């Protein structure tokens, strides 16, 4: 039977077990997960937080990570500024990025979620407002959500992957994991 792990990846952690090619060692999954034979199903950028799925089943790994299966990925996104409905509609309709058009996203403004503190914290600027979005995509290009919010003039300040398909990071503290 396939093993599936839900890991709440902290900010600054690489989505891999080893770090090769840099002079300074960076924190990897091996600092948190000591289970042989499990590998990430997809990636989450070093400066992003939240749900990272790991499995020992290659077919399940491919099904989770491959955009052909259009598995929804939901993010809680803190952005700079306060977008109006026109901006949100652009995200909902799909955008043209450097690597081509995105699929339409589900987007809604939300109240600030009750999340764990980030280390280091987001820089607060009294003169620049921010807000939170709940954004769901069904693809997973490199840094896609960050590029989408930047393309509409609202750079991402904090990005937390909340769920992938039916799996959620809810009730999993940062740096901890549980079996699904």
What does this structure look like?
The protein has 180 residues and is α+β, with helices and mostly antiparallel strands. The protein folds into two domains: 4-67 and 166-179, Pseudouridine synthase I, catalytic domain, N-terminal subdomain (Alpha-Beta Plaits, 2-Layer Sandwich), CATH 3.30.70; 72-164, Alpha-L RNA-binding motif (Alpha-Beta Plaits, 2-Layer Sandwich), CATH 3.30.70. Helices cover 14% and strands 30% of the residues. The protein has helices spanning 58-65, 85-93, 144-151; strands spanning 4-9, 39-40, 49-55, 73-80, 96-97, 100-101, 106-110, 130-137, 156-164, 167-168, 177-179. Strands 1, 2, 3, 4, 7, 8, 9, 10 and 11 form a nine-stranded mixed β-sheet that branches. A two-stranded antiparallel sheet has the order 5-6. The longest helix has 9 residues, at 85-93. It is globular and about 45 Å long. The two termini are 12 Å apart.
Question: Topology of this protein?
Answer:
Blueprint: E1 4-9, E2 39-40, E3 49-55, H1 58-65, E4 73-80, H2 85-93, E5 96-97, E6 100-101, E7 106-110, E8 130-137, H3 144-151, E9 156-164, E10 167-168, E11 177-179
């Amino acid at each position: 039977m396939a093993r599936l792990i839900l890991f709440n990846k902290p900010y600054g952690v690489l989505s891999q077990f080893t770090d090769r090619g840099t002079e300074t060692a960076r924190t990897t999954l091996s600092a948190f997960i000591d289970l042989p034979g499990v590998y990430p199903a997809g990636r989450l950028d070093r400066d992003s937080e939240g749900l990272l799925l790991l499995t020992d089943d290659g077919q399940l790994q491919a099904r989770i990570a491959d955009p052909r299966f259009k598995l929804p990925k939901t993010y809680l996104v803190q952005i700079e500024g306060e977008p109006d409905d026109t901006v949100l509609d652009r995200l909902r309709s799909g955008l043209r990025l450097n690597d081509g058009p995105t699929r339409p996203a589900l987007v809604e403004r939300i109240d600030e979620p009750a999340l764990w503190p980030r280390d280091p914290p987001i820089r607060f600027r009294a003169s620049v407002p921010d807000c939170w979005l709940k954004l769901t995509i069904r693809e997973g290009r490199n840094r896609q959500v960050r590029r989408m919010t930047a393309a509409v003039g609202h750079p991402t300040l904090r990005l937390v992957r909340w769920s992938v398909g039916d799996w959620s990071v809810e009730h999993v503290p940062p740096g901890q994991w549980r079996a699904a």
